[in-house]
Predict the 3D structure of the following.
Amino acid sequence: MSTYARLPVTFERGEGVWLWDDKGNKYLDALSGIGVCGLGHAHPAVAEALSKQASTLIHTSNLYHIPAQTQLAEKLCALAGMDKAFFCNSGAEAIEASIKLARLYGHNKGIERPSVIVTENSFHGRTLATLSATGNRKVQAGFEPLVQGFIRVPYNDIEALKSVAKNSPDAVAILVEPIQGEGGINIPDADYLSSIRTLCDEQGWLMMLDEIQTGVGRTGRYFAAQHYNVVADVVAVAKGLGNGVPIGACLARGTAATIFQAGNHGSTFGGNPLACSAALAVLETLNSEQLIKNSQLQGANILSALQSQLAGIEIVDTIRGQGLMIGIELKQVCTELLKVCLDNGLLISIQANNVIRLLPPLIINDAEAELLVSKLVDIIKTFALSQTETQQSHTG
């Protein structure tokens, strides 16, 4: 179905941060399959894990014990400070599980119509519940009636949350991204998450973090909330967890970890041996190759280089990021740069029509990072010059 406006390219193979199309052209992948391939393409550890598992057992279902799933749950919970994990196949499914968990939590407290607080400009998925939670009218348009039970507030506005606390007795949880990804790499104030944690403790709300894009080392920590020493009650993770193999997880601790009972939720494919083997290989590689540290280092280098080399370019508004999650906000629509970058052997995405989003693989090295910056700076400067010339021709 025509659900994607695909770019005119077909990739045949990949290695590390590089992709090759069916004509032999080489591209630097600064998008990682939309934040998925943190280990880059064709990583030998993942390939070996998949091959080994596929030759023994791919799937049995969750009617039975799955050793790789248990092992993965233990590792993820230890990294995130959680107690239990529910495995699914995507980020949207992880958020669906979080929403269902919050509603059941509310009903268990005697609240007839529990509500979850969400934020403007957020993105949580495209299922009916997750697009209803999403703060983007474009994603929701045409799919009404939307799922009820959400209270929307501005992002990075703790006073708005305090107002909800005073006026919405049915609120039971907050669902928020530590950094908004699809919304344009929006980074909140340093005390935003800790203030939410305090408010949740005061109100008896569940603090639920959407770490689907920010998790698994993307921001220079295993989870973005760890930059602020905040531990949520529920954490949704996916994207980079399987390096391209579909897997997601809803992690929970304390009371939140005890809410689901047998029959409350499920997934046919979720956490099967193949997907869990891939995820275990990813976590082991992140540790053995020190890729969390590399994400922090290379992200800081790329951010600094972009800020330095694009200083004084009138069309550039702000450049922001955390680890290898970087956004360059321009003062006008720049969606045409998708194709321009593609023609120059560079893969990016454009968010909110005017923010260039970079999510390069966590394995990126110094030379590749320098090449990424060089290519992108040249493209932005050329674009800025063309816009200036266009404006002059219109006024002249």
Remarks:
- The mean pLDDT is 96.
